[in-house]
Design brief:
alpha+beta; two-stranded antiparallel ribbon; 95 residues; elongated
Length: 95
């Protein structure tokens, strides 16, 4: 699990950079094209959960930007969705 601070606000920025360094996102239909070697180290049920994750394993916990008219600083937070949290918990249990 990593924390990223985006400059453009585009998920592609995260996806392409992580894939470039050999760590594609779980569930990425473009950059995760084969079974990562790290998957071999996981228990079978966790490996299957990670490899079958139906979407990109990305979550924006905090978003912030300046209001386009007033310039006021806006900040929003959101807990991880249940599928993301279940995957996170399963992977952390293996650490």
């Amino acid at each position: 699990m990593i924390a990223c601070r985006l400059e453009t606000g585009r998920t592609h920025q995260i996806r392409v950079h992580l894939a470039h360094i050999g760590h594609p996102l779980i569930g990425d239909p473009v950059y995760l094209r084969r079974r990562p070697a790290a998957a071999k180290l996981l228990p079978p049920e966790v490996r299957d959960m990670a490899l079958d994750f139906p979407r990109q394993a990305l979550h924006a916990e905090t978003l912030g930007f300046a209001h386009p008219i007033t310039g006021a600083a806006l900040r929003f937070t959101s807990p991880p969705p249940s599928d993301f949290k279940a995957l996170q918990d399963a992977l952390l249990a293996c650490a």
